[in-house]
Design goal:
Blueprint: H1 10-21, H2 34-38, E1 46-52, E2 62-66, E3 69-76, E4 79-84, E5 105-107, E6 113-116, E7 122-125, E8 144-147, E9 150-155, E10 176-185, H3 189-197, H4 209-213, E11 216-217, E12 221-224, E13 230-233, E14 240-243, H5 245-248, E15 249-252, E16 254-257, E17 260-263, E18 271-272, E19 277-280, E20 284-288, E21 295-305, E22 308-318, H6 322-342, H7 345-359, H8 364-367, H9 375-387
Parallel strand pairs: 11-18
Antiparallel strand pairs: 1-9, 2-3, 3-4, 5-6, 6-7, 8-9, 10-22, 12-15, 13-14, 14-19, 16-17, 19-20, 20-21, 21-22
Helix pairs in contact: 3-7
Amino acid sequence: MPRITNGETEAEQREVEAFLADPSANPQVKHSWRPYLEAKLGFRNHWYPAVFSHELNGDEPKPVKLLGERILLRRVEGQVCAVEDRCAHRRVSFSAKIECYTKDTITCWYHGFTYSLRDGTLVQVITEPGCALVGKMRIKTYPVQEAQGMVLLYLGDGEPPALADDIPPGFLDTDVAVRGIHREVNSNWRLGAENGFDTTHIYIHRNSKFMQTTDALLPLGLVPTSKHSMDIVEGPGPKGVIDKLADNYTPVFASTLDTVTISARMRPQGQAVAYRVSMWLPCVLRVEEFPSPGITQFEWYVPVDEKTHRYWQVLGKKVGTTEEAAAFRAEVDSYWEDVALRGFNDDDIWAREALEDAYTEGAGWTKERLFKPDMCIVEWRKLASKYNRGIQRETR
């Protein structure tokens, strides 16, 4: 299939392919996707979910890894504190053997260096009381916010932006109840994001448990009618690409191959789902009216390392009372987690992991050949490259 060029000349395409083959040898190549292609570990200076709030019940420390950085979380008098999960002395990980002698400190199991969880300051060295380094050495701390039952961390430098700048519209609304899961996927975060935003990947879901047990109506694919099928949201506030599926796409319900017809699963009373799909910086998908009318699915693809991402699947619904909120969460636990978050999205996990070696280990970024429905992926790459606040680099 022909590659979408977005106005690039053949010479510019060759430059891009040379850059992809060896970025260090081609530092002057300019391309609208270049920052995205460099962001193997994600974008710096953004907010990312780390754990659900209920995963930090009590004061048990919990290690996490985001964007290649090892981080240790612990509640201190109800407030979540986040510090680098490495001792400044010899750089070992605290979480290899947790030692907490007081509620607001972490002690390194190797030599007894003890740090405040509130500000990272070295407050004692157990093996050398009165050490001259006390008060002069510190470990990195991370800004933390809790919202909608999630603990989010700012990975970056300087004063963090407002949390709402990195969250899709609607998620933080006070009348929205949410419930979800998260799990680790063996693929780069960008493959997760592009799989979720890809309008035609719905082909892989045609035989899923979700399609067999619900009245959802999904075609084999969706073809954009024009370049105006998408809205580019450039802020202020969150920045993203909105794919207007219901308004500007032609659904494909059947295709033929010689005498064989491949058809989408059809039901006389089927309900159309996924009214609009949008992708937002730094790595968040929003699917409206899915998995059922009145529900919105939010997905984060948080980089863990270059070949792994943490897949967050959170359903949200507007409610009027605390009883309605509780009923919705119970519905997610008893039905939607099995039928949609696993019965539908397990296909996505399989697809991303199958795609991994073609991109991270292979030459997919160079050799891919996109077709018309990939316009949304192209626009996402361009927006992410233009408006990200920095590229995360490897840390040790």
